[in-house]
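User: Working on a comparison across species. This one is Abi-alpha family protein from Amycolatopsis halotolerans. Can you predict its structure so I can line it up against the others?
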Amino acid sequence: MDYQRPNGRGTAEDVANLARRAGQLAGWAARTGFDLTRKLPGIDTAERGLKQVERGLLSELRRRLDEVDDPYHAALTAASAMNRADIGSRAVETTVTLVPARDHVEPLRAAMAELLNHSIGFGRERAREYLYAIILRQLTPDEARILSALSDGSPFPAIDVAERSAMGGTGRIVLRNASTVGKAAGVSLPDQVPGYVTRLIGLGLVELDEEVPSLETQYEILLTDESVREVEKQVKRIKIIRHTIHVSRLGAQFWQACDPSLG
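Assistant: Here's the predicted structure for Abi-alpha family protein from Amycolatopsis halotolerans:
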């Protein structure tokens, strides 16, 4: 499988194509019930081959996302080149003549300048594509699963566990954004779901809302979650604060643009 780039840089089209191919591969595995046929003769070899191809696609996708229009990466590269040239010029100074020292490139300032330059030339669609690429680079696989589970707009229960103050009020929050969405999404690290949800909220992809009474059974199930029970052992007086989580407007737009099943 050829991953070579014609111009030495990942393009938005390359990234989209890779994402589409990875999504189609995952979709094929789901449609054919790959997990349910592992006992068939030769299926273990086929499964290893499938996973190897999938890992290759996803690794290349991650690499190209890391290189698409990353101003800080470009600034660091420029700074490194300038600093090497500066060291070389100072070495020449000792043997030939004195040359004024070159100012060091400051990557943070150079990166900001690069972003401001982009803001002049970007149209609406290009700016949106850039935003989505930056968001996609920050997601973990488990967080992508959670976003997929939320993508149809369904709410999921979420709770905060707080210390109850002496006056019966809410004190310190000891666990934030525990939710059943992790189990529904089949995440690999269930104990990290509160952190995943908090990050997705921080990225603007997920929103908190009020308690939904019709989810009462799910709230009760959530209270038996291991992460919740562990925190309860550490706090003398607890107060449970109920919420729901659902995909945000940005999250829905982002998923529409990145949904591999639509590729």
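For your comparison, note: Residues 43-67 form the longest helix (25 residues).

User: Helpful, thanks.
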